[in-house]
Amino acid sequence: QVQLEESGGGLVQAGGSLRLSCAASGRTFSSYAMGWFRQAPGKEREFVSAISWSGGSTYYADSVKGRFTISRDNAKNTVYLQMNSLKPEDTAVYYCAAATQLDAINARLVRRGAEYDYWGQGTQVTVSS
């Protein structure tokens, strides 16, 4: 079992920054990949970013590449999403997720929500124009 809790969401003006955190508990954090997804009102959930168990590989959606940075601190059981140059279209509920059954990751697999078996409750990010 893995429990995930996101924090760091809020209201920010366009061009601003936020850092999301996701604290994990339960299964050994350093043994599985982590991802961030988001869901805007009336839209489907979409992949944002993912990171391998070691942090050595990172993946981003084209819409956030160059603006967002994912990282993890295995000593603190926490994954982060640094979001810079925020745009109104980044407004969404952001979810972190754990892929504990994924033995090997690649750019295709990490984008699939079905590969993640534990999800947090989400944190709201609102970007005003």
Describe this structure in words.
There is one protein chain. By secondary structure, the protein is an all-beta fold. Helix content is 0%, strand content 49%. The chain has no helices and eleven strands. The chain has strands at 2-7, 10-13, 18-26, 33-39, 46-51, 58-60, 68-73, 78-83, 92-99, 118-119, 123-128. The strands form two sheets. Strands 2, 4, 5, 6, 9, 10 and 11 form a seven-stranded mixed sheet that branches. A four-stranded antiparallel sheet has the order 1-3-8-7, with no helix packed on it. β4 (33-39) and β5 form a beta hairpin. The termini are far apart. The relative contact order is 0.31. The model has no long low-confidence stretch (mean pLDDT 95).
Our estimate of the beta-strand percent is over 45%
> How many strands, what sense, and barrel or not for the largest sheet?
7 strands, mixed
Principal-axes shape call = globular
| Number of alpha- plus pi-helical segments | 0
- Beta strands, count: 11
Q: Strand pairing plus helix content: what structural class?
A: mainly beta
Helix content: under 10%
The parts where pLDDT drops under 50 for at least 5 residues are none
- Distance N terminus to C terminus? 40 Å
The pLDDT mean sits at 95
Assembly state of the chains shown: single chain
N-to-C order of helices and strands: EEEEEEEEEEE
Using only C-alpha atoms, the radius of gyration works out to 13 Å
